[in-house]
Amino acid sequence: MPESVGSTNARCADRLREAADLLEAQGANPFRVTAYRRAADTVLHLDEDIGTLVEREGLPGLDALPGIGRGIASALLEMVRNGRWTQLERLRGSVDPVQLLTTVPGLGHRLAERIHEELHVDTLEALEVAAHDGRLESVPGVGARRAASIRASLQQMLSRSRPRRPASAPGGSAAPSVETLLAVDREYREKASAGKLPAIAPRRFNPSGEAWLPVLHAARDGWQFTALYSNTAQAHQLGRTRDWVVLYFYDDEHAEGQGTIVTETHGPLSGRRVVRGREAECRAHYAD
Q1: Could you name the CATH architecture of 3-92?
Q2: What is the per-residue DSSP string for 199-241?
Q3: What CATH number was assigned to the domain covering residues 97-154?
Q4: Number of continuous H segments (helices) and E segments (strands) in the chain
Q5: Which among 43, 90, 166, 285 could bridge 95 via Cys, Cβ 3.0 to 4.6 Å?
Q6: Residue-range domain boundaries for the chain
Q7: 161 contacts: CB under 8 Å, gap ≥ 6
Q8: Which of helix, strand or coil describes residue 151?
Q9: What is the pLDDT of residues 149-167, one digit of tens each?
Q10: What is the DSSP letter of 41?
Q11: pLDDT tens sequence across 1-47
Q12: Whole-prediction pTM value?
C-alpha cells in the first residue's frame, strides 16, 4: 500500500482509536468502545485510500465495510471531507461549534454564534433539523427567507454525507422518548452534583484550562447517551451552566441525534425540566 494511502487511513484510524480511548476513560459502554476500535482496524487495513473509496462510492461504500455502521461511516466521511470529527472534538473538550456553523454559506460569525446560543446546535445535521422544524427562522436575524437559504445550502452540503435513514432504536423510534431523555438528564445532574462523573476541560470559556465539565455516558432503552452541561456564552452569562444539559444519543449503528433539556422559566411547565422542541410531549408526560 502506498505511503500516502497508509497515512490517510492511519489518520482516520488514529481518530477512531482516540475516541475509543476517551470513551473508555470516561466510563462509556464497552460496546461503543469496541465498535470504534474494530472500525479503526478495518480502516487501517484497507487496501485502498479511504478518500478514493469516498469519491467513488460515498457513504454507502463506507457503510458496506466490515464493522462500519451508519454512524461511524458518517464520522469517516466527515474526517475525509472536512479534516475533522466533531464528536472526537467534543470528547476532547475542544469542539468549536461556531466555527463549524460558519462553513454554511451566508452564516457569519455573529449569526452563527447567535444560532448556537439560541438553539444549542453544534453539528450541521442538528442545524438542518432546526431549519426544517421552524426553530431556525425564530432566531433574531434569521427569518423565513434566510432560513430557506440555509436549508438549501445544508441540503447541498449534506446530501452526499447523510445516513440513508435517521438514527433509530432497535424498536424503530427516530429519537428517544421524552421520558427516556428526562431520565438520563436526571441521572446526569444527580451524578454531576455528587462529583461521581469524570470531567473534561473545554477549550471555550475556560482560560484556566480547568477540567470542570462533567460527562456522562449511559445506556437506556436501546440507546447510548453522552450528556454534558451546555458550555455556551449564553449559559455562562445567565448562570445556567449547571442547568442546561445537552444530550447526544446514538442508535445501535452509532448514528447520532441531539436534544437539549432545560428548566422552564415560564408558562404551565415553569420549574419543570423540558426537552426543547418537544414541549407538547413534556406537557403530556407531566400530566400523566
Answers
A1: Orthogonal Bundle (1.10)
A2: EE--STT-TT----EEEEEEEETTEEEEEEE---HHHHHTT-T
A3: 1.10.150
A4: 12, 6
A5: 90
A6: 3-92, 97-154, 178-287
A7: 58, 59, 74, 77, 78, 81
A8: helix
A9: 998 888 877 765 544 444 4
A10: H
A11: 444 556 889 999 999 999 999 999 999 999 999 999 999 999 999 99
A12: 0.73
